[in-house]
Design brief:
Shape: globular
Strand order of the largest sheet: 1-2
Distance between the termini: 84 Å
Number of helices: 21
Largest sheet: 2 strands, antiparallel
Strand content: under 5%
Length: 595
C-alpha cells in the first residue's frame, strides 16, 4: 500500500504478507501441516525485508512494521495454541513433526522385521501356512491402527491365539478356524459396546509389574531356545551376531536417536553375515522359499462365504465355543494391558500422556479379527513385546502402528529376497534387548525394600506378594492365571487392611466416600427480620409505600458488665485481679476476667 514501494520491492513485500497470513492461519488451525524447518512468519518477513535492494525509507519502515506485526501475530498464535491445550508443535528440525513422523515410520519398520519370524512361528504352531500368519498380522494391525484407541499399540498374530487353536485344528481341520475367530470377534464387540474395558483398572501397578517380569522372562526363554539346537561354528556365529546386534541396539541411542538403533543393528548384522558368509539361519531358511518368493501372487484372497463351510450344528458349537471364550478372554486382557504398558512407558520417558480409549481398542480388535478371517487369517490381539519394541524404538503415534502393518505386507511382496536374508540371530538379539528392559528390576527391588523397612505397612507386603505371585505364575503357568492371582491377592489384602484399620479411620473413610457422593448442602435460610428481638414482618398492603419502615439497628451489641451476673474465679477469696482502669469490680466486688 506504500506508493514508494514499486517494482520487485512491491512483489517481495506482497509475498512477505502472504507468507505472514499463510503461516499464521496454518499455525493456528493446522500446526501439523507446516514442514520441518519452515520459517516462522516473522522470520520470513525479516528475511524478505532484508533482501530488498536499497528500499526507500517509507517502504523499509512499512516492512519493519509488518515484521513486528508478524512477530506479534506468531507470538499471539503460539500463546493461543498453548492456552487451547498445548497442541502447538515445534517447527524446528530437532523437535518437529517431520522427525516425529520419521521416527514413527522407522520404528514401524523395525517392528515389522521383528514380527515376521514370530508370525511365521505362530502359523506353524497352528498348523497353517506361514503366509497366513503374516497376513493375519498385516490385516489386524492395519485395521486396529485405523480405528485407533491407543497410538503406538501393535496388534497381530499372537501365541495366546494359536495355542488354543492348535489342538482344534489338529482334531477337526483348519476349516474351524474362521468360525471360531468370528465368534471371538463378536465377543470382543460385546465388550466394546458394553464399555467393559474400564475394568482393566482393577489390575494394580504391582500386578502389572509382576506381569512384565513374567513376560520378560518368557521372552528371554523363547529367544534362548533358538540357540539350544546349535553347536560348533553355527552356535558361535549365531551368538556373535545376536551379541553384536544387542550391543548396537543398546549403545547407539546414547549417541544419537535420529534412527531406531534396532534397525541399524539388524541392517549391519545382515550385511556382515552376508558378506562374511557366516553360517547363520535366515528367515528364508525358516519359512521356505515360497514365503519369500515375492510378487502379487502372495497376496491373500477374499474367502467370503467359503470361510463358513463347516456345518453349524450343536456338535460344531460344542467344539468352537469353549475355544472362542478362552481366546477372547485372554485377547481382551492382553490388548488392554498392552495399552496400559504403552501409557506407563511413554509417561516415564516423555511425561504425561493421554489415557487409552479401551473400548475403542477392543472395537479395533473385533473389526480387525473379522477382516483377517475374511482374508483367510486367524486374527490376533495387542502384542505387548512388539508394542514395547515400538515404544523403545521411538514410535509414539498411530503412524507407527500403521507403518508396521504396511511394511510387513511390503516386505513379503516387494522386498522378499532382502528380508529373507535377515539372520534369525539378529532378530533374537533385538528381542533379548527388549526382554531385559521389560523385566522390572528396580521396581521389584524397591517393593522388597519397602516391605522390609515397614515404610508402607501391610500395604507394602500386599504389593510385594501380588508382584511376586504374578511374576512367578505368569512365567511358569500362563499370563491369565498370573494376572488373576495377582488381582485376587490385591483385593484380599485391601479387605484385610480395612478390617484391621482403627474404627476412627474406617469412619473417616466412610464419611469421606459419603460426602463425595452427597449433593451440595442447600444454603441456610436468611434470618427473619426482628425488632428488639421480636419477630417482624413488613406489611403487604398496597399502601406499604407510605409506611415509614423501621430500620433495624446495626449488628453491634454492647454489654454492660455491671448488669451481668458475676461468678468469682476459682481460688480467689475476696480478691483477684482488678479490671484495667478501675479500682474494683462491679458494685464493689472484686473482678477477675475469665482465664
Amino acid at each position: 500500500w506504500d506508493p514508494n514501494l514499486t517494482g520487485m520491492g512491491a512483489v517481495r513485500g506482497a509475498c512477505a504478507l502472504v507468507l505472514l497470513a499463510t503461516h499464521s492461519v496454518l499455525a493456528f488451525h493446522a500446526p501439523g501441516v507446516l514442514p520441518v524447518g519452515s520459517l516462522s512468519a516473522a522470520g520470513g518477513l525479516r528475511r524478505g525485508a532484508a533482501s530488498l535492494a536499497h528500499p526507500p525509507r517509507r517502504s523499509l519502515e512499512l516492512q519493519q512494521g509488518a515484521g513486528r506485526l508478524g512477530m506479534r501475530l506468531v507470538s499471539d498464535t503460539r500463546t493461543m495454541q498453548a492456552e487451547a491445550g498445548g497442541r502447538m508443535r515445534s517447527l524446528s528440525p530437532d523437535g518437529g513433526d517431520g522427525q516425529k513422523l520419521l521416527k514413527d515410520v522407522l520404528s514401524g519398520l523395525v517392528v515389522a522385521l521383528a514380527s515376521i519370524p514370530m508370525s511365521i512361528a505362530f502359523a506353524n504352531i497352528a498348523g497353517l501356512h506361514p503366509l497366513v500368519g503374516i497376513w493375519s498380522s498385516v490385516v489386524l494391525g492395519l485395521v486396529s491402527a485405523l480405528i485407533g484407541g491407543r497410538p503406538g499399540l501393535i496388534s497381530g498374530a499372537a501365541g495366546v491365539v494359536v495355542v488354543p487353536l492348535a489342538p482344534m485344528v489338529a482334531a477337526h481341520g483348519p476349516a474351524f478356524v474362521a468360525p471360531t475367530m468370528l465368534l471371538v470377534a463378536a465377543i470382543e464387540m460385546v465388550f466394546s459396546v458394553l464399555k467393559l474395558g474400564r475394568f482393566v483398572n482393577i489390575v494394580s501397578d504391582s500386578v502389572l509389574k509382576g506381569f512384565l517380569n513374567g513376560l520378560g522372562l518368557l521372552l528371554i526363554k523363547s529367544q534362548v531356545t533358538l540357540f539350544a539346537s546349535l553347536s560348533g561354528p553355527a552356535l558361535t556365529s549365531a551368538l556373535a551376531v545376536a551379541g553384536g546386534t544387542g550391543l548396537v541396539t543398546y549403545v547407539l541411542p546414547k549417541y544419537t536417536k535420529a534412527v531406531p538403533s534396532s534397525l541399524v543393528a539388524v541392517t549391519l548384522a545382515t550385511i556382515i553375515s552376508t558378506v562374511a558368509k557366516l553360517n547363520v539361519q535366515t528367515l528364508v531358511g525358516v519359512a521356505g522359499k515360497t514365503t519369500f518368493a515375492g510378487g502379487l501372487k502372495v497376496l491373500p484372497q477374499f474367502k467370503g462365504a467359503s470361510m463358513l463351510k463347516v456345518p453349524f450344528t450343536a456338535a460344531t458349537f460344542k467344539v468352537i465355543v469353549p475355544v472362542a471364550l478362552s481366546i477372547a478372554a485372554i485377547c481382551v486382557l492382553e490388548t488392554l494391558l498392552a495399552g496400559k504398558v504403552v501409557e506407563d512407558f511413554v509417561e516415564e520417558a516423555d511425561g504425561r500422556v493421554p489415557k487409552s480409549n479401551n473400548d475403542r481398542m477392543l472395537l479395533g480388535m473385533s473389526l480387525g479379527t473379522a477382516a483377517s478371517c475374511a482374508l483367510g487369517g486367524f486374527g490376533g490381539c495387542g502384542l505387548i513385546p512388539q508394542t514395547l519394541l515400538n515404544v523403545q524404538a521411538g514410535g509414539r503415534g498411530g503412524v507407527s502402528s500403521a507403518a508396521y502393518a504396511l511394511f510387513m505386507g511390503a516386505c513379503v511382496i516387494a522386498a522378499a529376497p532382502l528380508i529373507g536374508a535377515i539372520p534369525m540371530a539378529s532378530l533374537a538379539g533385538v528381542m533379548l534387548t527388549v526382554a531385559f528392559s521389560t523385566v522390572q528390576i528396580k521396581p521389584t527391588l524397591r517393593a522388597v525394600a519397602d516391605a522390609q523397612s515397614g515404610r508402607g505397612g501391610a500395604e507394602a507386603w500386599t504389593n510385594l506378594a501380588a508382584l511376586a505371585a504374578a511374576s512367578v505364575t505368569c512365567f511358569l503357568v500362563d499370563m491369565a492365571t498370573g494376572i488373576g492371582l495377582g488381582v485376587l491377592i490385591t483385593l484380599v489384602g485391601a479387605k484385610l487392611e480395612r478390617m484391621n484399620a482403627p474404627p476412627n479411620l474406617l469412619h473417616a473413610a466412610s464419611m469421606a466416600s459419603k460426602l463425595e457422593d452427597a449433593p451440595a448442602p442447600a444454603p441456610a435460610p436468611a434470618p427473619a427480620p426482628s425488632v428488639h428481638g421480636l419477630p417482624y414482618a413488613p406489611p403487604t398492603q398496597t399502601t406499604s409505600s407510605k409506611i415509614d419502615y423501621y430500620t433495624p439497628p446495626p449488628k453491634t451489641v454492647t454489654l454492660d458488665r455491671h448488669r451481668l451476673p458475676y461468678t468469682p474465679p476459682k481460688g480467689s477469696e475476696g480478691g483477684g485481679s482488678q479490671a484495667p482502669g478501675s479500682g474494683g469490680g462491679p458494685h464493689g466486688l472484686p473482678y477477675g476476667p475469665p482465664k
